[in-house]
Amino acid sequence: MTEITPGQRLRASSALRWQLSQLSWPELRHQPWRHLTAWLAVVLGVALAFSVQLINDSALSEFSAAVRSVNGQPDFELRAQRGGFDEAIYARVANDPRVALASPVIEIETNGWDSGGQRIVLRVIGIDPLLAAQLSPDLLPRLRGSSTIDARMSLFDPEAVYLNAEARRRLSLPDSSADAAVNVKLQAGIDLLDFPVRGSIAAGGQPLAVMDIAGVQQRFGWLGRLSRIDVRLVPGADRQALLRELALPPGVRAAEPGESAQRVSNVSRAYRVNLTVLALVALFTGAFLVFSILSLSVAKRLPQLALLGVLGLSANERMRLVLAESALLGAAGSVFGLALGTGLAALALRLLAGDLGGGYFPGVTPTLQFSPAAALIYGGLGVAAAMFGGWLPARIARDIAPAQAIKGLGAAESGSPRNWLGPALMLAGAALAFAPPIAGLPLPAYAAVALLLLGGIVSVPAGVGALLRGVATPRNPLVLLAVQRSRHQRHTATIAVAGVVAALALAVALTVMVASFRESVTQWLDTVLPADLYARTAGGAAAETAYLPPGLAIAVAGLPGVSRVETQRVTQVQISADQPSVALIARPLPDPARRLPLVGELATVAEGEIAAYVSEAMVSLYGARLGTLFMLPLPDARRVAVRVAGIWRDYARQGGAVLLADADFERLTGDRRVNDLAIWLETDASLAAVQDGIRRLVAEQANASTANQAQQLIEFASVGEIRATSLRIFDRSFAVTYWLQAVAIAIGLFGIAASFSAQVLARRKEFGLLAHLGLTRRQILTLVAVEGAVWTAAGTLLGLLLGIAVSVILVKVVNPQSFHWTMDLVMPAWRLAALCLAVMVAGTTTAWIAARSAAGRDLAAAVKEDW
Questions:
Q1: Exposed, middle or buried: residue 131 (CB in 10 Å: 0-12, 13-18, 19+)?
Q2: pTM for this one?
């Protein structure tokens, strides 16, 4: 084997630079807009994917930092369910000689109001200031006017509140350094409790308030209970031995300080990966635009490349030239895409606070954190996509026969068609669709979609041939000529139709997926919202602290115009440390088969057993299958055995939900509190009058100081308002898919225009001969338009079929594996028909315009070049 010397490599590099400057640069200057379009496709693909990565990394990093700030640096934490545990455990832990420090903590969420009525959901943490200072210094209050004795003594005032910067900002309070005294109101039940703000805390993240632990216990009904105990061991102490000897009660466990951050990372991972894959769709379609542009460029330069071949430029050197052009295009697009992506990420973090609509990082306002490693990865993907698009044009440049091409006879076909490759790829994709997720992510399903798309594109020539074999022989000479040429030149369909097939398949798949999800959500809303009016305490996120008194439902049922009232209690329980909390819902269940959006049939529940109805996520995450016994944790840390009587769809809670009959829940927990009221109205009832009546009842049951604020304490929504708001949020969340549909179709049409322009350039001799035989320019253009119609029709049908196959994987595999819920497959026939018709018309028109532009010169004169 001959070794290439450094001198030879240097000469080859110099030759490539000369070729790029003398051959590629003039072509770029002559057709800047076409190359700019391909460059822009790479820019957008890289920018979207990189911005999503930066947003997610920044939000996760900020959330983790906030968790560390609040939790401090203990060796471990003793935790139970949200209802807490007996504070008597604290004395046993603190008095153990192996424990250097134990800090008791209470964590609750409630609604907070400023003096102007501005409301936010506020996390309230009760601490012992002297103990927490050593474990969680960011929670230590910084006192206003700390030089005075009274200010320092306020550290132990059970009524004092200390807010972090985010809470002050959201409540529009003055800066912590200001001397002005301000108060905030915190909700307990339907009472508003007044607390003076005495200072600030350094902890970041979501809106946060710190109080003395005794004040939280007394004012919010936590006497005798704790949320957690932060523990620091003496050096050399055996943690496992300590936990065994403490003999902690069931439900109390040792947790790592960063557990909540890891939990959020796990639950948001599928959402982040799906966003990234969706963003990479633009880069995938951009590769086809590069393919079309370079195909046209190679077709225009065939005589030039052929002359260089005659003069000694080898086939591999011609191939390297085109690949170098695509690599430079991808590199330029990647550089600008990374810059644009950084700007988009900074803007999104400012406007959306890192959530991107997912709601996984509430209250977190992250700062942008640039990642060089991610920049290299996504920049490399941009270059790889461009080179992928340039591979086939580079092979065409390599395989030309210089003697024929220099006479304008076009590129020679090389190799026998591999008709087996496309079906093999699609079969491999279909097999991968049945594979289980990897690390909780539908990675095999994504690979299946990619293989289906690639297999479908590779199968275009064979598919076009199969479709045309079924076409009857036309009588019109021009149509006959167009159909016959399409039959015998099927390999050119790969260039002309591949972009349409890929773009339409993606557009169809996204259309079917969005329509299926929207229709499923609509049906789900119709089932879960049977009442006319819904009422709840303001800020439903604070369900444990902001609740309605049990007697309110009875009083509301007696109001004029009210036909019936049902209550609902919502609380949270933790089943697994690495999964989000599960919603535990209690409400009347007179007819589960009619009142729940069930998936499948109901199971039989024996007498004396507790029936539980679980969401689909409970089956995926915890194995709570139909008819099985499931150990359900209660808010007080006890576990009870329940029989899974039914499985229902829940599009509101990705982490899972368990529904119990309200009588069973009250018997198990003794909790009679209420979070929501579902109200059925009489036929002639006034909605406004019923709402005013409920406000009066709330005012009567609230304490005297807050009676005039009843309107702030309760929220109303009619079923129509909830439905419209939910669908509006849904449409806004999927707006990016509509944009991607438009981009995909535009790229496909631009690709077919570039492809037909390239073919017209390569066929000038053929058109010249037809002109000599008597065909007019108009007839030749009609011939090209009919060919465009034939190939576009074939590409449209193939793209439709391929898109439906991809949509089945998205709906039936990707969605359940990512978010643990299912939906019905819906085919929006009229929308798909309109989409296919638009592609057909646009593709035919685009082919005609491309041919008209490229064949504008005297076609008959082209034949003279052969003599």
A1: middle
A2: 0.79
